[in-house]
Design a protein that fits this description.
The protein is built from 10 helices and 16 strands. The chain is of the alpha/beta class and 334 residues long. It has 2 domains: 1-48, no CATH class; 50-328, Nucleoside phosphorylase domain (Rossmann fold, 3-Layer(aba) Sandwich). Strands 9-15-14-10-16 form a 5-stranded mixed beta barrel. A 4-stranded antiparallel β-sheet has the order 1-2-3-4, with no helix packed on it. Helix 1 crosses helix 10 and helix 5 packs antiparallel against helix 10 (310-328).
């Protein structure tokens, strides 16, 4: 048995001292009893984890940074077979701490996301996999900083077919592939604002505080006055388009809506993760949670540059904080 005193920094600039008692057996740590300001809890130590409750997939370093800042005590666990590391941490706030593994894809695109998700699913055997990140709004009701949870993912550029064309001789026909979310899981998140009103309102108000903290005041006022951002973020559930194209043109949005007029947001990894989760002997439930950072049109460069990327940070933080609110409410069962 060993005893250590540890300090962890969270969102608030204060030190949280913790006394942690480790159980040392078979030349490795197995469990720890921790005593701190948040109470007493028991948790598995990373070296002994063979599975996890929750697997979080994040595409880009800038997105992962926001998650890391919330959990700076993440422990890196090297992947000896494929290189790199996965990051282990525990989400508390429920009766049973949620053992969580985060994997950084390190790049954009469906192929990269599917490969990373498949490897992580095989390694950690989670009960649920969640993809958090940013996306472009394709609908006027979805504003900057809003968050969408996908109930359907359209891999619009899957299964391409070259067909004859009178104008150019040939053209690519997009057949696509569609992945549907799990009904029970989607009902839980759709009703979250009503079943867990206190947690939802905390997220709602935190989003307003983040907008004030991240976006320059004059720019925030301009965005509000033009109706592209709300004072508080809104949670949406709807269809998501996922493919290999960065959306920065209105014409591309028109094409996507010709396939599905109800598509709400566009991004580049969700279809890969969804495919990895369902194309298995035992399917793994999945959630896609995306914060909106632009509109997928000619304004994209301007939005990305606002406040040195502050709208991208706002979108990612709102998505991440929503995931944490849902997990910490205890509404998900592992």
């Amino acid at each position: 048995m060993s005893i250590s005193i540890e300090c962890g920094r969270r969102l608030l600039p204060k030190v949280d001292p913790t006394i942690r008692v480790y159980d040392w057996r078979d030349n490795r740590f197995h469990y720890a009893i921790s005593v701190g300001a948040r109470g007493v809890w028991r948790e598995a130590v990373a070296e002994s984890w063979e599975s996890c409750d929750l697997l979080v997939l994040v595409a880009l370093e800038e997105e992962f940074e926001e998650l890391y800042q919330l959990f700076p005590d993440m422990e890196a666990v090297p992947d000896p077979e494929h290189g790199g590391s996965d990051f282990i941490f525990t989400i508390r706030g429920t009766d049973q701490p949620v053992r969580t593994v985060a994997r950084l894809v390190g790049g954009m695109g469906i192929a990269e996301a599917q490969l990373a998700a498949d490897r992580a699913l095989t390694r950690w055997r989670p009960n649920l996999i969640v993809n958090i990140g940013i996306a472009a709004s394709l609908h006027e009701d979805i504003k900057l900083g809003d968050v969408l949870i996908a109930d359907q993912v359209d891999a619009y550029d899957a299964n391409l077919k070259a067909v004859s064309s009178e104008e150019s001789g040939w053209e690519l026909q997009h057949r696509g592939a569609v992945f549907h979310g799990e009904h029970v899981l989607l009902q839980i998140v759709k009703q979250f604002r009503f079943t867990h009103r206190k947690q939802y309102e905390a997220w709602y108000n935190r989003g307003a505080s983040l907008l004030d903290a991240l976006v320059p005041k004059d720019k925030a006022s301009e965005l509000k006055s033009t109706g592209v951002v709300r004072e508080h973020p809104t949670l949406h559930v709807g269809h998501l388009a996922s493919g290999s194209v960065v959306g920065a043109a209105t014409g591309f949005t028109t094409f996507l809506k010709s396939r599905d007029a109800t598509i709400r947001v566009l991004e580049m990894e969700a279809a890969g993760m969804a495919r990895a989760a369902v194309k298995r002997t035992q399917q793994v439930p999945w959630l896609i949670i995306r914060g909106v950072s632009d509109f997928g049109d000619e304004r994209k460069s301007e939005m990305d540059a606002t406040g040195v990327g502050s709208l991208r940070r706002l979108a990612m933080l709102n998505a991440t904080q929503l995931m944490l609110s849902i997990v910490q409410s205890g509404v998900l069962k592992y």
